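Subject: Lipid-binding serum glycoprotein N-terminal domain-containing protein structure
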Amino acid sequence: MFTVPDISQSLASNSGTLRLTDVRITKFQPPKAYQMSAAPPNQVRLTLINMAVTAIGNMDGSVNIIAPLELQGELEVEAEDVDIILNSALEKTSDGLPHLRILQCTGRIGKIRVVNHNGGVAGAGVDIFQ
C-alpha cells in the first residue's frame, strides 16, 4: 500500500482549515493507454490516459460557513477517468549527475466521489458533494 505525506490546507477566505493524515492509496487502476515522446532539446512528454485511484485518510479541521463546524472522520476520495500530461527535461546537475526537471504537469479528473465516514453532521455535508 502506498502512503501520502500529511496535508494541511487553509480554506479560501480564511473560512477554515483542513488536515489529512495517514492517507493511503487503497485502489489504483493503471492507465488504459499511455504515450511517451521526446522533443528537442532533451524534453520528454508522458501522457497517461484513463486511470483511477482511491485514497483514504483521517480528516480533521474546521470550517466557518454560517457557524463554526468541526471536521472529523475518515475521508475517502475516488477519482475516475483521470488523465495526466507531464512535460519534463533531462538535464545534468553541476556535478554532472542526471536530473529530471518537471516543466509542466496538467491533469483532468472525469469523475470524483468524496465520502466522509464517521464525520457527524459536518461529514454529512461533505457527502453531499458527490
